[in-house]
Structure formats: structure tokens, C-alpha cells
């Protein structure tokens, strides 16, 4: 049942994440066509997300791009295109960061970005936001890395690869931060406006504030194109891993890769359409299944605890050295740190959600309500509980 929830949670994110890819692609087209300089960005964003045709079209294009890559398999598809996309992403981010750091006034944003405020170390929200961001950006608890591990070589160093994944992710995050935050401070009319822009949320910052700021600089159209192309590449690289997870599950049930890819992509298009058409539905699904990753991560933690960390290291990770050190670290992480983190994050989320919506937190129809999250989680968990043995039987039968 745990695996069912993890698999469904990531697939549910796939259904609406393709919409984000579509937004990025649409704004890249706006940038290279020059239209982005001639629009009221707030009004355009509101009009675009309230429309039907274009969000659905770009949602479809994103699924086709991701599906095409997965259709060709991991070696000829994912590995081949990631060798192009990941270097391209870093190149675009570095170009954007260099441009941002050369803007007059960017030093204010740079100082803000790297300023160390020791008092914030005692702020629980800072730690929780950091944990949430790390879990989201590294793919921890999604099942994505577990899916890719099927194709790993026996001599691959899992611990080193995991370490490199974390380092690479944090490097990309820092470069992206240097591209965005100094730009916001350099091009905002004053510092309070810059703070207001940073507080506008992911959608508002990326698709309203950033375009407004880019048109104020020389060559703004070009750098707007660079920014949104980088955003699209980053989004599509995540999307293909989600599609691969769903396709891999279908393969385990006996489908061929090609048929599984077609089924998943067609399903993703139709199930994701409501999120493409309604920003409220999108926000609700992002809220429900983004939080679901926390539960998915807990399931992975409990799975390791169940088989014991020493067994997990000896049978699965198989380090060639520092075995005693790894075992000691994993005991502290899995028996103490991770369970405590899960309980604290879950408790903080419940408390915060009730504080934000004191009169409607229980309402299952509320966009950001606790009731809606728990209802959708419970439905999926019940389906997994009812059909778990059937699913396991079908997978074992296919493998045999």
C-alpha cells in the first residue's frame, strides 16, 4: 500500500506539472516573439490562466515532448536528452546569473541572498521551508530515483551518486537564485517593492514580476527568453522522470513501454485538463499532492526502519568502505531525525493550515483546506488497501 501511495502521488503531480511546463513554454514563445514587451503582465497572466484553448494546447505540447523522450526508453530517451538538457540548463542559468550580477543595484540582492542572520536558525519555519524545498527539488520521497535505480549498474556507487545529486541540485538552486534575486532588487523601484515581489509567490514572481523587470533592461527580451527557456528545460526534465515512473509501473503490470507511454500520456492530458483550465483546481492539486510527498517520504523512512538500517546498507547500498560510519549515521537519521522531522512538519502544517483558514480548514472543497487534503489522501490509501493484494499478484504473475 505504501508503494501504491508513492506511485499515485507522483503520478498525480505529473497530471498538473505538465501545465507548469506549458506556462514556461508559452512565456518563452512570448519572449522570442517580442510580445512580452507589449502587454500588461498582470492582466495577461490572469487572462491566460482563465482561458481554455492556450493553456490546454501548451499542456498537450509539454506532454508530447515528455512522452516522446520516454517512448524511446531510458538509454535512447532519458539519458540521451538529459546529456543535452542538463548542460543547456546550467549554461542558461549561468548566463542569466552573470547578467543579473552586472546590473546596477544588484549588489543589494546579492547581499540579501547571502546574508547570514543567525537569529533565523531558531525559526522553525525556516527549517521546515528548507526541508520542503530540498525534498521537492532533489526528488526525495517521490519514487523517481527508485525508478531510475532499476537501470543502474551493479557497480554504481549509490551513496556517491546520492551525494552528487544533492550537490548538483544545490548548485543549480544557488545559480538560479543569483539569476533572480539580484535582478529583482536591481530593477525594482525601491527595496520595499523588491521584498513585495519576492513575497508574490512562485506564479506571481515567475510570470508577472520577472517579465515586468526584464523589459526594463537592455536586451530584456533576449534575457527573458533565456530565463523562460531555462525554466522550461528544468520543468521538462522533471516531467520526464514523472512520466517514466508511471510508465514503469504499467510495464510491471505487463504493458509494453510504447503502449504504457501512450496510455499514461493520454491519461495525463485528460486528467490534467482541469488544472490547465482552472487555476483554483491547479492550486488545490499542487497543495494536496505537494504535501503528499511528505507522507511518501515517511513511507520510505518506515520501509528502511522495518528492514533495519544495517540490513539496508549491507544488502542495498553495499559501500566498499566506511561501513561502520555509514551505519552509525543511518541509525541517527532513520531512527531519530527523519521520524522527528515528519512529525514536526505534519504538526506544523496542520497548525498553520488551521490558522490560515480558521473557519473553513475542514471544508473538503476549500482550495487550501486540511479537509480536502485528508479526504483525497484517504481515498487513495483506501483504494490501495482494498486492491493491494490484487496489484501485487498481477505484478508477480507478470514477472514470472
How would you characterize the overall build of this protein?
It is a single chain. The protein has helices at 2-33, 41-50, 53-71, 73-101, 106-114, 124-138, 144-148, 158-187, 191-198, 201-214, 220-252, 257-277, 279-307, 309-317, 323-356, 370-399. With 400 residues, the chain is mostly helical. The chain has a domain at 2-280.
Keywords:
400 residues, 82% helix, globular
The beta-strand count equals 0
Q: How much helix, percentage-wise, in residues?
A: over 70%
Q: So what's the oligomer here?
A: single chain
| Shape field | globular
Largest sheet: none
What's the helix-strand series?
HHHHHHHHHHHHHHHH
Topology:
Layout: H1 2-33, H2 41-50, H3 53-71, H4 73-101, H5 106-114, H6 124-138, H7 144-148, H8 158-187, H9 191-198, H10 201-214, H11 220-252, H12 257-277, H13 279-307, H14 309-317, H15 323-356, H16 370-399
